[in-house]
Structures are given as C-alpha cells and as structure tokens.
Amino acid sequence: MKYKFNRQFTHPTGNRYHNRFNNRHGVRFAGFLLLILGLGFLLSTGITGLNAQEGAIPKEKLLSQVIHSGLERWHYSAKRLDDSFSAKAMDEFVNYLDYSKRFFLESDIREFEQYSDKLDDHLAIGSTQVMDNAVGRLEKRMNQVMGFYKEILAKPFDLTKIESLELDPEKRPYCSNLDELKEYWRKTLKYRTLLHYISLEKTQNAKNKKGKKNKAKKKPKKISAGKVDPKLEEKARKAVLKNFKSVFNRMSQSLENDSFSRYINAMVRVCDPHSNDLPS
C-alpha cells in the first residue's frame, strides 16, 4: 500500500509576531491589546458585575464590540472592516476550525459564504451568530465521523492493497457528501494503521533478531501479499482507535473553551498576519 504525502503544511496559528512597527504604532496596538486583556479579565472574574445580573450584556457581545472598535481605530494598520475584511476573516476562521478539511463538506463551505460580507456587521453589534453556526456545524460533522470511525476500525484492513491519499489540504478539496467523507476517513484510518503496523513489525523483527539490514527493511513502502501478520494488524488498529479517541476528546474541549478566542483571532490576523494571537 503506497501513500503520497507532503508534510510541509502548518496550522494557521503557526505564525509568530514580528516586532517591526515603529513606536507610535506599537503604542496604539499595545493599548488595544491591554484594553482587551483587561476587559476580558474583569468580565471573567465578575468584577464588573455584568455577568451577575439577569439580562446583563454577555461578555462575548461586549468584547466583540470593543474589538471591532479597536481594530478600526487603534490597530496600527488602520484597515477598514468592510466586506473584503469579512470574507478574509471568514476564511481564516474556517481554517482555524478545520484546517485539514477532515470534517466540513462542500455544502457547509457554500453555506458559510452567505456570511462572507456580514462578519464586520455582526462584530459591530456583538453578535456571535456566525461563530455559533460554524462551530455548531463542525460539532455535527464531528459527531457523524465519531459515529462511523469505530465501525471502520472494527474490521481488518487489506494492507496489501495499494491506495492513494492526499494529506496536504492545500491540494485536496472538501468532501462533497457524507459517503465521500466516510471514504476519506477509511483511507486515513488505514494509513494510520499501516504506519503503526510497520512500527510494530520493526519492533518485533528487532526482538526476534530476524530483521535484515537493508533499505527495504528500514523504509518499507508496501507490504507484500500474504505477509501481513493479523495479530499485529489488529494491535495497530487498536492503537489507532485509542489515539483518535484522545484526538476527538481534545477537539471537543477546544471547541467548548476556545471557539470565541479563535473567532476573534481570525479577525485580528486579517488586519495583521503578524499580530499576536489573543489568549484563549
């Protein structure tokens, strides 16, 4: 089984802040960040009392309005928050949520496009509807994947069959429907199982002192027919199952705790790709 892949892609949050603006711009942006951090601290600790009263302003709404004003007035780039900004911010946020294109369908992306010229307006009034809709859709797709990935891993893979899988999301479109998404996950889980199998096989050969020192043994790219150890294959699938259980747990926690900060970070990064991400 052969796979073509390119590891030269990074998560959108991988950039770093470059301190290259002058003192005047630095003071303006630093003041903006300090205000947001201070306001966020006050709201999270309840010092302002805004969260303690019935009918009080939600902190997300208040922070959204403050950030909208800050990005327009205080950020050193002084970019206009218009339809062009909205489209770029929406793309950035979708990348934050599903940068590997493992969950969203083409229909989801088309649906999100209806917000491509409205994000600035939502931010101005403190509405999180766009964020809530996108996060809700991601949760739905995650639940659908979690509904079938265990079923896929419950059956042995034919590791001798050659298949192709593009791992670089820049070279792969979103899946068009659920059947295509399930097939993508089947190949992904098979690929992960193959990697675990090869690792287990190397370890076993080393222990039995039967591994021959040649390039084919050091970097196996396919498994010959009739040479798959069913016990090792089963052990590899169980390892993949355990790994993805942890992955889905972390993703669920991240969606619950970090969605708003990622939403705001997407907008800040459109104004300046080198700006620090705001803390979660």
- Relative strand content: under 5%
Q: Care to count the β-strands? A: 0
Looking at the structure, what is the overall shape? elongated
Helix-and-strand structural type: mainly alpha
- Head-to-tail CA distance between termini: 41 Å
Please give the radius of gyration in angstroms. 24 Å
Average pLDDT metric: 75
What does this structure look like?
This protein is mainly α. It has nine helices and no strands.
Q: Quick summary of this structure?
A:
This protein is an all-alpha fold.
What is the strand and helix layout of this fold?
Layout lengths: L22 H23 L13 H15 L9 H16 L7 H7 L6 H7 L3 H25 L24 H31 L6 H4 L11 H42 L9
Pick out its properties:
mainly alpha
